[in-house]
Amino acid sequence: MADNNSLLRIYEQMLRIRLFEQKAQELYVQGLVTGSMHIYTGQEAIAATAGELLRETDTITSTHRGHGHCIAKGGKTDKMMAELLGRKTGYCGGKGGSMHMADFTRGNLGANGMVGGGLAISVGAGITNAIIKKNDSVTVCFFGEGATNEGVFHESLNLAAIWKLPVIFLCENNLYQVFTSVAESMPVKDVSIRAISYGIPGITCDGNDVLELYDVLDSAIERARNGQGPTLIEAKTYRWEGHYTGDGYARGGYRSIEEIDLWKAKDPIARMAKYIIESAIADNELLEKIEAGLKDEIEKAVHFAMESPWPDDEDLYKDVFYEKEEV
Q1: Distances (CA, A) of 150 to 7, 153, 156, 185
Q2: Which among 122, 130, 133, 272 is least buried, having the fewest CB atoms inside 10 angstroms?
Q3: Domain residue ranges of the chain, discontinuous segments joined by +
């Protein structure tokens, strides 16, 4: 069960993620962010709770909707903003953009533009930790429900189960694969039932409830550390925005306005704030202070990015092929 300090840190991370993405959307509209961008708003509880439970030596694999994962694993908002703006000081030197942020120093093995692209990578990390290095580090693999219809999902769970690898397969089921609802693309109600095929635990939980998420993730992580193998967790949630920035069909098109408003009423940040105040963990004054500090952080991140240099011409040829370091 989460203690009060953990709950406050999770709340702060959720709010950091949301404020970062709100500013990123503003910059996108202004034409300062190029390429595609997939917003995580509404799903913040999942990344923030997982991040709170992981150690620095643990790793994650991310998705195309990965800003929240990066922040939750200790990512710096100034370097992230610089990456979005294509600047040299960004995590990938300004060449990766929104869908390809990685920070190996924090255990973030990278976002991925391929659906299910992180699944096999997470298994590789599990092999490294359990079989090669023989340590107790774990990997949390984030992916959407659409990825569970990919072959690599089944291959990854199968191998992880056979070798009891320390991987937590964390499905963020936001109910839509681009424009297609889960009702049209899956014959089962819950993703978690697919765990039965591989003899591992499968759990469905409320992805907007920090308290429930914390207990479910805590148990799965502890199980993995103890050498008992992987767990498939399905966290049911909802993305408030469209599939990508500029998706004009998300509200009133393939999703009804009533459905969106219903899920917005389940806002994980508002729910957490209400719980914190009602439980006397903190008062409104402290929560307002946290928000003010985060807004200042994001503004400084934008300033850092705007003042950062563009990549040099020769940077175009760097990081394309492996270059052996001279001894």
Answers
A1: 35, 6, 10, 12
A2: 133
A3: 4-243+256-314
CATH topology of domain 4-243+256-314: Rossmann fold (3.40.50)
Report the distance separating Cα 268 and Cα 239, nearest Å.
12
pLDDT at 240: 95
**In 3-state terms, the chain is what percent helix, strand and coil (to 5)?**
50, 10, 40
Coil, strand or helix: which one is 142? strand
DSSP count for the chain of H helices, then E strands: 11, 7
pTM for this prediction: 0.95
Paired tokens of 252: 């009133």
C-alpha span between 175 and 110 (Å, rounded): 24
- The model's pLDDT over 11-51, given as tens digits with 9 standing for 90+, comes to 999 999 999 999 999 999 999 998 889 999 999 999 999 99
In DSSP terms, which residues pair with 173 in a beta bridge?
236
Listed residue (233, 71, 75, 260) closest to 167, CA to CA? 233
* Amino acid 120: pLDDT: 97
pLDDT in tens, 49-65: 999 999 999 999 999 99
Task: Outline where 4-94 has alpha helix (H).
Answer: 4-29, 44-53, 67-72, 77-84
